[in-house]
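Suppose you are handed a protein chain with no further information: no name, no annotation, nothing but its sequence. What can you learn? This example shows the usual starting point.
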Amino acid sequence: MSRLPARERPVKDPLSPTTQAILQLIQGLLPALSAVVVGGWVAFTFLQQQKEAQASLLRQSEKENLTRLTEARKPFIEKQFSIYFEIVEVAGKFVHLKPQSKEWMALVKQYDDLTFGAGWLVSDKETEIAMSTFGGAVKSYKPQEGSYFSFLEIVGPYSKLVTSLRSAIRRSWIEPDKLLTDARPPASESAPP
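A reasonable first move is to predict its three-dimensional structure. Written in structure tokens, the prediction is:
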């Protein structure tokens, strides 16, 4: 055995110099790339939250507008309801009266006063037609002795009148949100050119 020190064998690096250079580059850029990715995610999340908050504010604003519109229309709607109720009450009395009697003729005048006065002021086209049709049926009604079917000449228009008034009330009270959508221009008109 020799007394010379044993030579250490040079440790051969398992990675080539090119691979080592690439790894060092990645190691240097990794913190910066991480910061860019995290920053992008934060910006994306922030923008999404802002968009959702804006949509929520818009929905809340529309609800408040609908409430204000309903409150503003409330006196008119209440008056409309009372006039419609009075018209139906007067029209319903024709059932109990003898046709062409003094009471009948007074009721025809009262009905005309209601429908051609306040009734026309608060009604829509459908209701105006139903009120006219019933008024015309009452004025032209000539009962036939012993015939129940001649009375149907009044009952049919009365039923249409009541249905029309009920629909008008429903449109006023239950569907006021259509007023908001009807007031807005179509999407094609509201978009800038």
